[in-house]
Amino acid sequence: MKIEVAQSKYKWFALSGSVIGIGLIAMVISMFTFGSPIKLGLDFTGGTLIQLNFPKAPEESKVRSAISAENLPGTVIQKVGDGGIAIRTKRLSEDERLKLQGKLKSELGSFTVERVESVGPILGQELLVNGLLALAVSLAGILIYLAFRFQLDYAVCASLAMFHDVLIMMGVFSILGLVFGTEVDALFVVAMLTIIGFSVQDTVVVYDRVRENLQFISRKKPFAEIVNDSVNQTLARSINTTVTVLLVLVPLYIFGGTTLRDFAFALIVGFIIGAYSSIFTASALLVWWRERNTTSTPPSQKAKASA
Questions:
Q1: What's the whole-model pTM score?
Q2: How do residues 162-196 score in pLDDT, each as one tens digit?
């Protein structure tokens, strides 16, 4: 089966635009709800996380009732698995934390402490700034690399496809934060950088085949047809690479535990989006860009533009 990317480019644009639009709406709602486009976790906001394991998880109302006496406004309570409870609150000293655990034990019964994490607000802000800076530097570096490796139009289209992946990922986790209370931590930044790298690598493979076909095989064909041929020639490789990675990530998501689950899920979603964007979005953008420039380019310069 041959995929028609060029002829159906506006359908792919409409699909991507719809998904991004839903994500942007979720991010706006999240801004009013949490003060950020996605719900930031303890790594970025600062505070204390206490995760407790009960033989049988108590009702959230009982946990909140036990905590209310300790004057901890803004505390977030989440169920984790069958008997786990995660409590996120303001930064607590060792004595304050032990006092809270004692109160919970007297009110709710025995439990085991699964983990305790504390992050100061200054460190949290520094992690957030450094994470955003890492994303910006990686995007700028990739744009420069692609401009040297190919032509400027290839670099611009690949960069737009990267922003497409980033926006969809942020939209997905914004929705998860609003619906399920999912928070992002430092591992989310790692996942984003990994996804960007994978997406660009897959896009480079497609663009490299387009350039080869332009130079050696199909110079007399229309550019849209050359892109279609190139996408179909690299399609099996893109699918096989993505499926191979998913065979590792899905078990990691299922068996990796609470700490790695959101990280694995971000990678699963990101690799699927990256494969889609390299096959459809990046290729369709390149066709659109060339067709748009060809209509406004003098005949004497069209030959140079097709190289």
A1: 0.76
A2: 889 989 999 999 999 999 888 888 788 888 888 88
Residue 56 pLDDT more than 70?
A: yes
Domains annotated for the chain, with CATH where assigned, are 9-37+123-305 (1.20.1640.10), 47-118 (3.30.70.3400)
Rounded distance between C-alpha atoms, residue 207 and residue 204, angstroms: 5
Would you say the C-alpha torsion 292, 296, 297, 299 has a positive or negative sign?
positive
> Which residues, at least 6 apart from 56, have a Cβ–Cβ distance to it below 8 Å?
83
Report the relative pairing of strands 112-119 and 84-89 from DSSP bridges. unpaired
| pLDDT score, position 123 | 53
Please name which of 208, 205, 230, 203 lies closest in space to residue 143, comparing C-alpha atoms.
203
Fill in the amino acid letter for 4.
Answer: E
Neighbours of 148 (CB within 10 A): 9
In this prediction, residues 33-55 reach a mean pLDDT of 82
Query: What does the alpha-carbon distance between residue 248 and residue 45 come to, in Å, rounded to a whole number?
Result: 31
Question: What is the C-alpha radius of gyration for the chain, rounded to an integer number of angstroms?
Answer: 24
